[in-house]
Design a protein that fits this description.
Length: 221
């Protein structure tokens, strides 16, 4: 798939061929959904905690005599039926972590990138750089390229000036290409990437490199 390459002024300067094994891969929506659910689940802290009847700070004294009151027999205010008592079957700290093989995770990324490329939502830049952090300049660049759409800006490496320029914009996120993930791919309408970031993505998502990595992982296991 051939797409135009733009400069920061929004002018078309050349063309580039997107790797077919990454941007024209077979689309597996179930795999993308599984990968997204995994990422969201792994983000949960799981620190929720409710006190049971053995943990609440209330007296253990029998609240009233056993017989003759006409009430049900009770021995403690800690029982779950009383206000201030323990919680029955309440939440306890736990891990929500879900495991997913690297082969499947990367296949999900290729599916998401293929969807974006098929919809024309990938914009390639020759390069992006700024001398100083300037949010106003970043807004102007993005308006020229994507006309105000929510955008994921992929960077080949850390660029403090570019990242700071994008940080205060609610519809723009600057992300290093090595941290590419399914939630951000699906959460933004447009993907803007310099040619250097495209090379980074190609280096770890291309089929040959991927299968080599997967075979190494299997041998280690």
């Amino acid at each position: 798939m051939e797409v135009p390459v733009y400069n920061m002024s929004g002018e078309e300067v050349s063309n580039v061929e997107l790797p077919a094994d990454i941007f024209e891969a077979k689309i597996n929506r179930d795999l993308m959904h599984q990968s997204l659910v995994r990422q969201l689940a792994n983000k949960r802290l799981g620190t929720h905690k409710a006190k049971g009847r053995s943990e609440v700070n209330r007296s253990t004294k029998k609240i009233y005599r056993q017989k003759g009151t006409g009430n049900a027999r009770h021995g403690s205010r800690r029982a779950p039926i009383f206000v201030g008592g323990g919680v029955a079957h309440g939440p306890l700290p736990r891990s929500y972590e879900k495991k997913m093989p690297r082969k499947m995770r990367r296949a999900a990324l290729r599916s998401a990138l293929s969807v974006k490329a098929g919809n024309g939502d990938i914009v390639v830049l020759d390069e992006i750089s700024m001398d100083v952090p300037k949010t106003k300049e970043m807004v102007a660049v993005m308006n020229r390229l994507v006309a105000g759409e929510s955008t994921l800006l992929l960077l080949a490496e850390r660029d403090k000036n570019v990242e700071l320029s994008a940080r205060n914009l609610p519809d723009l996120k600057a992300l290093r290409a090595t941290y590419l993930n399914i939630r951000d791919l699906l959460g933004y309408n447009k993907i803007v990437m310099p040619l250097a970031a495209l090379d980074v993505i190609n280096s770890f998502l291309s089929s040959e490199d991927f299968f080599d990595d997967f075979e190494d992982a299997e041998e280690e296991e």
